[in-house]
Amino acid sequence: MGLLFRCYRLRKLERRKSTSTVQPDQIKGNDLGVEGEGFVRKFRWEEIKAATKDFSRVIGQGGFSNVYLANLSGSSHGAVKIHAASDLLNQVFKQELDILLRLHHDNIVKLLGYCDDLEKLHEREKEVLSWKTRTSIAFQLAQAIEYLHEKCTLHIVHGDIKPSNVLLDQYFNCKLCDFGSAKMGFSSTVVPLSCSRTKQVMVGSPGYTDPHYWRTGLASKKNDVYGLGVIILELVTGMKAFCPEKGQLLTSIVAPNLRDLSEHGAEEKVAQLVDPRLAGEFDLEEARCLLSIAALCLHQSLTVRPSVSQIIEMIKEKITSIGFLFTQAKDCH
């Protein structure tokens, strides 16, 4: 089972390329047997294999799926997500397809098609993302999450915000992907899993999953806010969220240093937290702003954590380098 997305030249936030083409005929989304709008195509498995050069380039991995680089017609690149086959994962596949057909936003991955045959960005090249690029990614990712939380008719919780689910195009514009853990219809801040007749479990990832969710089993928009906070912390520090060798979480390592960042004399503390590979090429006050936002996002209390709309306003107010990105997200149709 596979989903095909347009992403042009791809990178992972945690990048890649190939040769072969797919010529898409388009069919209506409603012909897929799922609700939704737009035009997507049902691909044959042979086409998926050709476009991915026999699945030669992995650009993302999850617990039950891999994402491969694909070459599309017109020399553009895309991504193919392949699910493992099982009754449960068939349900997840159809749910993700249903959600993606409803979404239309510049910072959310665009669905081109799918294949339901029952066959089966940290790893990027050694470039160092500039400070301006890092702030841009943080802002665009926040815009994508805000669109899901507030601007869709049915509010959506993504449920698995992490770098491998953020694809970057050739201009480092972010595209949020992987809606296999997403939930629709979240109008309140917190929704108990028991409210649903069919128990739905949000799949988490080490270092990114909200500890409040693990403790309580309560699914919330604030789970996505927590994941955004971890990614912002990674963008600022250049460190990974989880170190398997040491068994340490970035949030645990950095947490003590996130206190009192607004106080006079905290500049040295902020500078020490910023990725040393930037060699001082960053704005100290912008770094302080992002670290303060991360601290709020990671707060144990859900009520203290800001909404994504509030995060966007804080970024707009304090980070001048993303002024050119102030665009209105399109409404979900």
State the separation between the terminal residues, measured CA to CA.
26 Å
Quantity of strands, as a count: 16
User: Topology as H/E string?
Assistant: EEEEHEEEHEHEEEEEHEHEEHHHH
What structural category characterises the helix and strand content?
A: alpha+beta
Give the assembly state of these chains: single chain
Spans of at least 5 consecutive residues whose pLDDT stays below 50 are: 15-38, 187-202, 326-333
Named CATH topology of the largest domain: Transferase(Phosphotransferase), domain 1
What is the CATH architecture annotation of the largest domain?
Orthogonal Bundle
The whole-number mean of residue pLDDT values reads 77
Q: What is the number of independent domains?
A: 2
CATH homologous superfamily of the largest domain - what is it? Transferase(Phosphotransferase) domain 1
What share of the residues lie within helices? Answer: 25-40%
Q: Output the radius of gyration.
A: 20 Å
Q: Mind describing the biggest β-sheet?
A: 7 strands, mixed
Anisotropy-based shape? globular
